[in-house]
Structures are given as structure tokens and as C-alpha cells.
Write a structure and sequence with these properties.
Elements lengths: L31 H31 L5 H21 L5 H26 L3
Helix pairs in contact: 2-3
């Protein structure tokens, strides 16, 4: 099988032009340093995209696998202290007192976890 297109040589003037094609840009006249900066920036963007992809939906809220336990514990402490503060202004009842005791216990448990996790050897 032979093609007639190769027989004409380099007659590119009769080739059909795609009207939707993007125009070609002129060659860059930038320096080598600009090129290095461009590639370094592209590398950083790529690494950020990989991190976003690895974290997933929940990971964006709580952090990576190394940071998630600490972030969740800190969130629990904030919520429990907020609950204890709000419950201090509510009328006293035996059920509220028991709930406050549980909340204080959980706060000390989580604080112990945070300080214990910081001293754990790897």
C-alpha cells in the first residue's frame, strides 16, 4: 500500500487547516533561570495536587494520617470545654452534674493522650 501524500514531497500549502486549532506560540525568549523557576513552580504545584489527592475529603478536614489523631483530640477538647462552660450557666441538676463529671473525665483523658502521643518513641 502506498500513499499519494508522500509522493508530493513537502507541498504543505494545500493541507487543510483546522479552524478550531489553537495558534502556535512563538518560542520563549526567557532565560535559563526563568525556565528553572517555571519547572520548580510546576513541581510544587504537582506535589500539592498529590497531597490533596492523598488526603481525600475527610483528610482535608482532619489532616494527614500522622496529624489526624492530634487534630481530632484537639477538636474534642475544644468541644468538651465549650460544653462544660455552657453547662455551668444551666440550672443545677443531678443529671447535669453527672454529665459534667463525664466531660471533665474525657477532657483529662484526651489531654493525657495528647501529651502521651508527644512523648511516644517512633
Amino acid at each position: 500500500m502506498t500513499s499519494d501524500a508522500g509522493a508530493e514531497g513537502s507541498d504543505i500549502g494545500t493541507a487543510p487547516i483546522d479552524p478550531d486549532a489553537q495558534p502556535a506560540r512563538a518560542p520563549s525568549t526567557g532565560s535559563g533561570r526563568q525556565e528553572d523557576a517555571f519547572f520548580a513552580n510546576a513541581k510544587r504545584k504537582h506535589e500539592l495536587e498529590l497531597i490533596k489527592h492523598d488526603l481525600g475529603f475527610i483528610g482535608k478536614a482532619v489532616g494527614s494520617s500522622a496529624q489526624a489523631p492530634t487534630n481530632i483530640a484537639a477538636f474534642l477538647i475544644v468541644c468538651l470545654i465549650l460544653f462544660i462552660t455552657i453547662s455551668a450557666f444551666m440550672p443545677a441538676s443531678p443529671a447535669m452534674d453527672d454529665t459534667r463529671k463525664w466531660a471533665f473525665g474525657l477532657v483529662t483523658l484526651v489531654v493525657g493522650y495528647l501529651f502521651g502521643a508527644g512523648t511516644k518513641s517512633k
